[in-house]
Amino acid sequence: MTAFRTRSAAVSASVHEHAWVTESVHVTSGGRVRYVRCADCAARRVDLDAARDAPPVALTRPVG
C-alpha cells in the first residue's frame, strides 16, 4: 500500500495544464509540423496542423 501512495502522489504532482509555446514550424506535405514547449514545465511535444480550420493534433506525448 505504501508504494501505491508514493506513486499516486508523484503522478498528481506532475499533472498540470500545459501552456504550449511554438518554438519552430515546418511545412510538410501533411500540413505544418510544430515543435512546442510548455512555458511552465519545459516539457516538449510535436503537433501537426493538418488543416487551417482544425486545431493542432499532438503527434507525440509531452516529454520532459
Features:
64 residues; alpha+beta; disordered N terminus
Helical content class: 10-25%
Residue fraction in strands: 35-45%
- Largest sheet: spatial strand order: 1-2-3-4
Give the averaged pLDDT, no decimals. Answer: 76
Main sheet: strands, sense, barrel: 4 strands, antiparallel
Supply the number of helical segments: 1
Oligomer state of the chains in this structure:
single chain
The count of strands amounts to: 4
Order of secondary-structure elements: HEEEE
Number of domains: 1
Residue ranges: pLDDT <50 for 5 or more in a row? 1-13
Q: How far do the termini sit from each other?
A: 28 Å
Secondary-structure-based class equals alpha+beta
Rg:
15 Å
Would you summarize the structure shown here?
The chain is α+β, with helices and mostly antiparallel strands and 64 residues long. It contains one helix and four strands; from the N terminus they run H-E-E-E-E. The chain has one domain.
Describe the protein.
- There is one protein chain.
- The protein has 64 residues and is α+β, with helices and mostly antiparallel strands.
- It has one domain (17-64).
- Helices cover 20% and strands 39% of the residues.
- The chain has a 4-stranded antiparallel beta sheet with strand order 1-2-3-4, with no helix packed on it.
- The longest helix has 13 residues, at 2-14.
Task: Spell out the blueprint of helices and strands.
Layout: H1 2-14, E1 20-28, E2 31-38, E3 44-49, E4 57-58
